[in-house]
Amino acid sequence: MSQPQQQPLLYQQQPQQPYGYNQPGYVVYGNTSEGAHHSDHHHHSKDVTYSIIFFILGFFISCLWLVNIKYLKSHEHSARGFAIASLVLMNKAIKFLTQKESTFMDELLLGPKYGFTSDQLMELAGLSVSSAVLKVYPKSEYRNVLTICGPGNNGGDGLIASRQLVGFGYNVSIYYPKRSSNDIFKRLLLQSELSGVHILSELPENIEDKYNIVIDAIFGYSFNASTGEIRAPFDSVINRLNHINQEKTPIVSVDIPSGWDVDVGNVKNTFVPKLLVSLASPKKCAQSFKGTHYLGGRFLPDAFASQWELNLPPYPGSEQCVDITNCQK
Ligand SMILES: NC(=O)C1=CN([C@@H]2O[C@H](COP(=O)(O)OP(=O)(O)OC[C@H]3O[C@@H](n4cnc5c(N)ncnc54)[C@H](OP(=O)(O)O)[C@@H]3O)[C@@H](O)[C@H]2O)[C@H](O)CC1
Ligand SMILES: [K+]
C-alpha cells in the first residue's frame, strides 16, 4: 500500500504563529504539531546564533549591532540579551562626523555661545598631534620629522605640532608651499622658525633617507573632493606621499588622510597613513581606517559633546590624546 503523500502546508495556515516564522511562503512539511515544534526550536536556536554573530561582528563594524534589533522580540532570552547589549554598545559607539557636521560644530564653537577663538582651538589641536607622535613614534627612533602644511587650518595644526615637537626634542622641517595671508598663519610660521623648525623651499628628494616620520597636515575636513581632482601644488605632493615606503618612514595624518573624501574615505586610492590623529571627533572617512587611530583636540565642553551625542572616550588624566584604535568601526 502506498503511503499518502505529505502535502506542503503554508505556515500562515496554522492557527498559532510563533514569532519569526511568518515570512510569506515559509513552508512546513507534514501537518503534525511535532514538526512545527521541531522547526520552532530550530529557529529559536538560530536566533541565539545570529544574535551572537552580529554582537561579535559589531565590534568590527558597529552598524551591525543595529541588525540585532530584530532579536529584541525573540522568544529566546539569550538572543534578546545579545540584542539589548548590542544596542547599549551601539549607543556608546563614537560618532563619526560628516563634513557638514564638522563645519557646523566648528562654527558653533567659534560663535558667541561657546566663545572660543581659532588660535585657541588650533593650539590645542596641534598639541594633541605632537603628543600622539611622542607616544607612538618616540624621538629616540624617529628624531627627524618632515611636516607638510596645507593652506587652511589643518596646515596651521601642522605648524603648531612642529614647533611643539622641537620643544620635545625632535628635529623638524616644514614644507609649506601655499601660505595663507591670514595674520594667524604668519604668526604661527614666525613662531615655528624662532623655535628652530627648518623651513624648506621645496619637497626634498629621498624623503625616507632624511626623515623618520612625515606629518600630513595638508587638508582637513574642508577638503573638496567633489571636483574629483587635487589642485596644484598638492597633486604632486600627495603623489609623492603615495610612494613613500611607510615601513621606513610612517605618515601621520592630521584629522583626515589628505586626499580622502571626508564623508566617504579613500576614493582616489591615495596613501593610507600609519597613524591618524582625529581632532575633536573622528570624521566619517575614518570608519574605514585600519591603522593606529588617536583622538585629540581636547577642547570640547562636556555639554557640547553630550548635546551632539558624540560618545567620546574620556582622556586619561591631563593627556591631550587618547588611543581609539579599537573603538572606531
Ligand atoms: N573644531 C575643530 O575640529 C578644529 C579643527 N581644526 C583643523 O582645521 C581643519 C579644517 O580647516 P579648514 O581651514 O576649514 O580647511 P582645511 O585645512 O581642510 O583646508 C581647506 C583648503 O584646502 C584647499 N582645498 C580644498 N579642496 C582642495 C582640492 N580638491 N584641491 C586642492 N586644494 C583644495 C582649499 O584652499 P585654497 O587656498 O586652494 O582655496 C581649502 O580652503 C580641521 O580638519 C582640523 O585639522 C582646527 O585646528 C581646530 C579646530
Ligand atoms: K591631513
UniProtKB/TrEMBL annotation:
EC numbers on record: 5.1.99.6
InterPro entries (alphabetical): YjeF_N_dom, YjeF_N_dom_sf, YJEFN_prot_NAXE-like
Domain YjeF N-terminal: start-end pairs: 97-311
Enzyme class, broadest EC rank: isomerase
PROSITE patterns noted in UniProt: YJEF_N (PS51385)
Annotated (6S)-NADPHX binding sites: N153, N154, G155, G156, D157, D255
Swiss-Prot/TrEMBL keywords: Isomerase, Membrane, Metal-binding, NAD, NADP, Nucleotide-binding, Potassium, Transmembrane, Transmembrane helix
Binding site for K(+): N154, D216, S258
Catalyzed chemical reaction(s): (6R)-NADPHX = (6S)-NADPHX; (6R)-NADHX = (6S)-NADHX
Cofactor names: K(+)
Gene Ontology molecular function: any one: nucleotide binding
Cofactor binding, note field: Binds 1 potassium ion per subunit.
Family in the record: Belongs to the NnrE/AIBP family.
NCBIfam families assigned: yjeF_nterm (TIGR00197)
Function: Catalyzes the epimerization of the S- and R-forms of NAD(P)HX, a damaged form of NAD(P)H that is a result of enzymatic or heat-dependent hydration. This is a prerequisite for the S-specific NAD(P)H-hydrate dehydratase to allow the repair of both epimers of NAD(P)HX.
Name the UniProt record assigns to this protein: NAD(P)H-hydrate epimerase
Phylogenetic classification of the source organism: Eukaryota, Amoebozoa, Evosea, Eumycetozoa, Dictyostelia
